[in-house]
Write a structure and sequence with these properties.
The structure is a single chain. The chain is of the alpha+beta class. It has 18 helices and 18 strands. It folds into four domains: about 80 residues, Roll (SH3 type barrels), CATH 2.30.30.240; about 70 residues; about 100 residues, MgtE N-terminal fold, CATH 1.25.60.10; about 110 residues, CBS-domain, CATH 3.10.580.10. The radius of gyration is 26 Å and the shape is elongated. It starts with 5 loop residues before the first strand and ends with a helix. Keywords: CBS domain.
Length: about 450
């Protein structure tokens, strides 16, 4: 099939990216463009390609040999595996330009001169020098009542308002970019936010609701967490901290100066701040510092059906849902006497009306709040677990450590930002870096 020399960017999003031998590299999520001086058509520099690992990388347009309806083919299968980062003057076509407001000064569309228009797509084409440039802009008039606005396609030179400065103005619509995050896991949203310029990241963070932002914040590096909290202001920051899991809130506050952390805690609801304060009393490299204070806890008189209903909650991650902890009242941590635990698989084997007190694993060893990282790691390896109870000297359940929190502590502090190691990665990275420098 013949290669396309003109294409609209919205049609590229989601296409597979293939090497010359047909090997799959990833999928296109956006196009990086360079906004130039007034009157000059912006260059389409390259593709934002999402690898199977969810990492987004930059692939120069010069590497593209063909664009077809189902896939984009590259001249080489070697690509730069470094996390994509925008440079000054660069923008994401779908993430930053589409859905912004502009004016159109087209002699053939004189009736639109004084109207606010919304960008809905960008057309790019290849020039004789093999560069790709934005040649056309698809815009829509603002809707009136229930009527959808009319769509017009105009030449780039007739559009006013698509500049790097204009894209940073607070009045631009974020609906398109926010819609891209719908259905994405918090960790993937966090990775996408890290690719954006700080101003754009802060604007999107401000537009997310408290619960969603709390989930995303938990997946960001400490520096980005504190930067976003500073941007949203103390009142909303308190609401976000209250929406976070206590252990993640404690980790975040532990990165702040003591006086600043105390200021947040003092403004939080006492019921929300109390478990966070307890967690902060433990060293972060101990079981007490790793644990969550809100594991799945029931009494011995709870039925199997009720226990299964508890762990069916989608807000509970799979590791935490693998064990149900059984105690005497009260069931809020620190609980009454710890009796034992029930494994998820054991619940599946029992009749729904059975009581969890009859299928207890009372022999499983427990962790102490001062146990070291090495002890916790050996505990999981010894008992083949992904979650374990933390119990004090008086046999009260304080919380539970899950394997995700353990890995987060064992990995390097900047693991979310560090580049993965790949065989031959040095050669691949050098080739990719050379391509990007050449543009």
């Amino acid at each position: 099939m013949a290669s396309l020399g003109k294409v609209y960017i919205a049609r590229l999003v989601g296409l597979a990216v293939l090497g010359p031998d047909g090997e799959s590299i990833g999928r296109i999520r956006d196009v990086v463009v360079a906004l130039r001086l007034s009157g000059q058509r912006p260059r389409a520099l390259g593709l934002a390609v999402e690898l199977p690992t969810r990492r987004r990388i930059f692939v120069p347009m010069l590497r593209v040999t063909s664009i077809e309806p189902q896939a984009v083919t590259l001249a080489t299968g070697q690509v730069n595996l470094r996390q994509m980062q925008l440079r000054p003057g660069e923008a994401l076509a779908m993430g930053q330009i589409v859905d912004t407001r502009v004016r159109v000064h087209d002699p053939d569309l004189a009736g639109l001169a004084d109207q606010d228009m919304t960008v809905i797509d960008l057309g790019i084409e290849r020039t004789r020098t093999r560069d790709w440039v934005i040649s056309r802009v698809a815009v829509r008039t603002n809707r009136k009542g229930l009527r959808r606005g009319d769509i017009h396609v105009v030449e780039w030179g007739h559009v006013v308002g698509l500049t790097q400065h204009a894209l940073q103005l607070p009045g631009q619509n974020l609906a398109q970019e926010l819609s891209q995050f719908e259905g994405m896991r918090p960790a993937d949203v966090a990775n996408a936010l890290r690719d954006l310029p700080p101003r754009r990241r802060d604007r999107i963070a401000a537009a997310l609701d408290d619960g969603r932002l709390a989930d995303v914040l938990q997946e960001l590096p400490p520096d980005d967490q504190t930067a976003i909290l500073d941007h949203v202001g103390i009142d909303r920051a308190v609401d976000i901290l209250e929406a976070m899991d206590p252990d993640d809130a404690a980790d975040l506050l532990g990165e702040l100066p003591t006086t600043e952390a105390e200021a947040f805690l003092a403004r939080m609801d006492p019921e929300e701040s109390e478990p966070v304060r307890r967690l902060l009393t433990h060293s972060p490299d101990t079981a007490g510092g790793l644990m969550t204070s809100e594991p799945v806890i029931v009494t011995a008189s709870t039925t199997v059906a009720e226990a299964l209903a508890r762990i069916r909650n989608p807000e509970i991650n799979p590791a935490a849902a693998s064990l149900v902890f059984v105690v005497r009242p009260p069931t809020a941590t620190p609980t009454g006497k710890y009796l034992g635990c029930v494994h998820f698989q054991a619940l599946l084997r029992e009749p729904p009306a059975s009581l969890v007190g009859g299928i207890l694993d009372a022999d499983l060893a427990t962790l102490g709040p001062e146990d070291s990282l090495d002890s916790v790691t050996r505990y999981f390896a010894t008992y083949n677990l992904v979650c374990g109870p933390v119990v004090d000297d008086e046999n009260h359940l304080l919380g539970a450590v899950s394997v995700d929190d353990l890995l987060d502590q064992l990995l390097p502090r900047d693991w979310r930002e560090a580049e993965p190691h790949h065989d031959g990665g040095a050669q691949t990275a050098t080739a990719g870096a050379t391509d990007r420098a050449a543009r």
